[in-house]
């Protein structure tokens, strides 16, 4: 009688442990995906800001930045050239009166990065200061030379899905999450 009770208790404990392990084997991938999605949402937002900074840099300097110092300097201190057209160039009366153009300069920081974390732009969220991998250069498409850039998450949470924006082989500004 005593021996049967001991065996039943041991089997009950084994069933409990196996049940726990079964539930954990199902719950762990779900927790991983939730955490990955939470982290990747912030990484994607940062990559979008970097893309905006690169486009602004190209407007100012004619090509994409190949290092963080140059990109950050233009993002903080650079200015866009904006031309305002006074009159309608498609209206013949306005054309006869004369179309006027007014040129002004607008701060990149104030226009693109208002209330955004510009100083943390090069840093990958959740990595304690690791930098995104930034590359820029030129490629030939037929007879045309095109400026390109690529920014990649150098410390991805999930190595099977490395986030990046731009491309060093194609004239693309899109991210691989889009």
Structure description:
- With 178 residues, this protein is of the alpha+beta class.
- The chain has a domain at 2-65 and 116-166.
- It is 46% helix and 21% strand.
- It is built from 4 helices and 5 strands.
- The chain has helices at residues 2-61, 68-77, 92-97, 108-112, and strands spanning 79-86, 100-107, 133-141, 144-152, 164-166.
- The strands form 2 sheets. A 3-stranded antiparallel β-sheet has the order 3-4-5, covered by helices on one side.
- A hairpin with a 2-residue loop joins strand 3 (133-141) and strand 4.
- Helix 1 (2-61) packs across helix 2 (68-77).
- The longest helix has 60 residues, at 2-61.
- The mean pLDDT is 89.
Q: Considering DSSP H and I runs of 4 or more, what fraction of the residues is helical?
A: 40-55%
The 3D shape can be described as elongated
Rg from alpha-carbon coordinates: 27 Å
| Largest sheet geometry | 3 strands, antiparallel
The average pLDDT value, as a whole number, equals 89
Number of helices: 4
State the end-to-end distance: 66 Å
